[in-house]
Amino acid sequence: MPLTPVEILRRRFRRTLFGYSVKEIHRFIKEVSEALAYLLDENNRLQEEVERLRLQLQDYQNLEQHIRDALVLAEKAADDAKKLAQKEAELIVSQARMEAQRLKQQAMETEQLKARLEAEVRALIHSYLALLDRRSAGDPDS
């Protein structure tokens, strides 16, 4: 068990005829007691500081873990958003291709209809012209 400053102050020595000066011994004991008291106080202060820093470190480690977790979630959310955007882009492109194909088909059908109508109109015009030519020639059947 460590020696305390109070124990040092209370410590008494036997006096001898040719022994050391009691005054000097008491002065030395007092100096040792003060030094030990200072060291014990410093030790307590340092232990409290160590505990405070340990708790602070634990808080920082917890904060670091929360930040890491948030970063992982953010990365996952970014990946999910990227995948979703990619799928949406693919869907838009697919729909645009289908619409382009439909419009191309519709344009071809319209072109065919136009060509058929032009042919019918030309045939009708030719038939009316032929009819007019026959009437002008005096054909009684017209």
Helix- and strand-based class?
Answer: mainly alpha
Q: Multimeric state of these chains?
A: single chain
Distance between the termini: 143 Å
Order of helices and strands: HH
**Mean pLDDT figure:** 91
Low-confidence stretches: none
Number of helices: 2
Radius of gyration: 55 Å
The overall number of domains is: 1
Largest sheet: none
Structure in words:
The N and C termini lie far apart (143 Å). This protein is 85% helix and 0% strand. With 142 residues, the chain is mostly helical. The protein has one domain (5-136). The chain has 2 helices and no strands. The protein has helices at 5-10, 22-136. The longest helix has 115 residues, at 22-136.
Features:
single chain, 142 residues, mainly alpha
Question: Could you outline the blueprint of secondary structure elements for this entry?
Answer:
Elements: H1 5-10, H2 22-136
Give me a quick take on this structure.
The chain has 142 residues and is mainly α.
